[in-house]
Design goal:
single chain; alpha/beta; Rossmann fold; 8 helices; 15% strand; binds nicotinamide-adenine-dinucleotide
Length: 254
């Protein structure tokens, strides 16, 4: 294996959902800077058009609402009508709606499950269909969370959806291995992004940081190694794995 090119993605096409902000935006930049052509998919088109100008490689912007079958089918058509190629999916779109379990409404529960689990399923199924048709393998990276494994206050819907996403990852990995479609999950701990920085500056936010063994939040760039490993051929024998990047949060003492 060429040391210089371990993470090279030249010639590959990567779809990133939720690419309009936060981690998805960062993932798109990272994959693009390693040579991938990117398909940026989310609801806020203008934000992705401005991201597009920052990218080093070719990209297209597609409107996507993962809660809508119609929207996911439109994305499939867009991909099939362009080159038809799809090598990497970063299944990143996600929401949370923190609320105590005793106060949670069915509407809130369903909306988190609809985006984080059913939405991820819909996009993964669409990407799998294309990858199987192309018969050229692929890498699907589901963005889970450390809350798939442990629980936190007021996040029952989020933790349940992410735990199910990990089981989906492993089930898909098992069934798609023979087609060389690898399916893995990346489970970040608390990563500083534009939308959570205000929260982590509050006393409550600081007390969360105190529970992380490394006593700090992760940076978006600290997910790059795991992302590039899973996206590239360097992980050609990895499937069904969950890579945790959390500053030791999951191993904090009971
Ligand atoms: P974010 O809110 O900045 O990004 C979420 C993205 O998903 C946005 O682009 C949003 O528009 C998109 N999205 C939401 N609903 C959508 C829908 N119905 N259709 C299409 N796109 C939709 O948050 P983030 O922190 O960047 O989170 C990205 C992913 O990483 C999520 O799956 C989240 O659960 C996961 N995650 C984040 C952290 C963290 O600390 N930031 C930790 C663990 C896991």
């Amino acid at each position: 294996m060429d040391k210089e090119n371990l993470f090279d993605l030249t010639g590959k096409v990567a779809l990133i959902t939720g690419a309009s902000s936060g981690l998805g935006k960062h993932f798109a930049k990272t994959l693009s800077s390693y040579g991938a052509k990117t398909i940026l998919a989310a609801r806020r088109i203008e934000r992705m058009e401005s991201l597009q100008k920052e990218l080093l490689n070719e990209s297209i912007v597609v409107s996507l609402d993962v809660t809508s079958n119609k929207s996911v089918n439109k994305l499939r058509e867009e991909i099939e009508n362009s080159t038809g190629q799809l090598d990497i999916l970063v299944n990143n779109a996600g929401i949370s709606d923190p609320v105590k379990f005793k106060d949670i409404s069915e509407e809130s529960w369903l909306s988190v499950l609809e985006t984080n689990l059913n939405g991820a399923f819909r996009v993964a199924k669409m990407a799998t269909d294309i990858m199987l048709k192309n018969n050229d393998g692929g890498s699907i990276i589901n963005i889970a969370s450390i809350l798939a494994e442990r629980v936190g206050l007021n996040l029952s819907s989020y933790a349940s959806a992410k735990a199910a996403l990990v089981q989906l990852t492993k089930s898909m990995a098992l069934e798609l291995a023979r087609s060389n479609i690898r399916v893995n999950a990346l489970a970040p701990g608390y990563i500083l992004t534009e939308i959570n920085q205000d929260f982590f500056n509050t006393d409550e936010g600081k007390s969360y940081i105190g529970k992380i063994p490394m006593k700090r939040l992760g940076l978006e760039s600290e997910l790059d190694g795991a992302l590039l490993l899973l996206a590239s051929n360097t992980s050609s024998f990895m499937t069904g794995s969950v890579i945790t990047v959390d500053g030791g949060h999951l191993v904090n003492p009971l």
